[in-house]
Amino acid sequence: MSKFTSRPVLRWAVPALAAVTVVGAGVAAKTLAVAAEPDLPPRTAAQLLVDLQTAQLDGLSGTVVERADLGLPALPALLGGQSSELTSLVSGKHTLRVWYSGPDKARVSLLGTQGQSDIIHNGADTWTWNSKSGTAQHHRSTGEDPAGKGPAAVPSELPKSPQEAADLALKAIDPTTQVSIGNSAKIAGRNAYELVLRPRDTASLIGQIRLAIDAQEKLPLRVQVLAKGDANPAFEVAFTQVSFARPDDSQFVFNPPAGTKVEEADPAKAEGAAGEQQHATGAEPKRAVIGTGWTSVLVMRTGQPAQATTDPAEAKQVQDAIDQLPLGNGGRTFNSKLFSVLITDDGRVLAGAVSPERLSQVAADPAAALK
């Protein structure tokens, strides 16, 4: 299944596409404490980039702490759940346990005060489980998934490990990016180099991305994303404990606890339901990317956002949340430290690591009309 096999060194848990999600206000984040700088042999930025691209990972287990202080507006109507649900990763501090044993075996467990959520991939089988709701979904791959869609139950696309976050950051390296060496550090008891990525375009809300790379294993131990002008990370994911030994196979076996409601996923049925929903809502998703590099803007047209579901209660919940957003710049807008979103009156959604004013300018561009 491509969700777990694509670039196994850097993307070994769940998909790593950043989702723009409207949620409650973030909790102030502070950088994770590290020891004094270790004395490491010098390496250039180019050498560290090669290290990241050529590192080999046979097995790994550890504890990951994720902190998010994105400065999002408080919109309780769109909250994804309690602290043990993967949708909660967009705000506050969270602890995850991770295991990896080759491209066919991976597990992520989000630990919360009110329960636990797991994603377990083992060969052709993928399980998602939520202890609070007492539900589990089982997806069995038939080997006929060339599009790499995989299970539809992964509830959050934010990076859940330093590897995933680093993979996203590496995609940004092009002529619009300045790459340099930062300070060495000791993270999770291991020596690490630091690679710093900075946008050359000052219009980006992102100031820099800092990757701490294990000096021996050449794998990311920590990734920090800093907003322009801020000294503290708006988003950070880091190992606090890590072992590069291959975990026992028992870690990837899921036996539903007594009383768990198990749903067997049917990919064909899910695709059919999506088609019926699109027909019922009249939605014809269109999208385009305007601009390049760090200041590019994603434009989507799916009809009015609240009409993207056939569930009246869910549609009302979405519309109520949208109505709480301030009017301005040609529609409903909100902005965080790292990105902004504009929902226009004609049913488009624009998002990017730029200011709301920049989104308004893009919305007026004929190329963003998506007609």
Automatic annotation (TrEMBL):
Pfam families: MucB_RseB. InterPro entries: LolA/LolB/LppX, MucB/RseB_N, Sporulation_related. Residues 128-163, 258-284 are annotated as: Disordered. It comes from the Bacteria. Keywords: Signal. The keyword Signal applies. Residues 1-18 form the signal peptide. The keyword Signal applies. Residues 173-245 form the MucB/RseB N-terminal domain. SUPFAM superfamilies: Prokaryotic lipoproteins and lipoprotein localization factors. This is MucB/RseB N-terminal domain-containing protein. It comes from Dactylosporangium aurantiacum. The lineage of its organism: Bacteria, Bacillati, Actinomycetota, Actinomycetes, Micromonosporales.
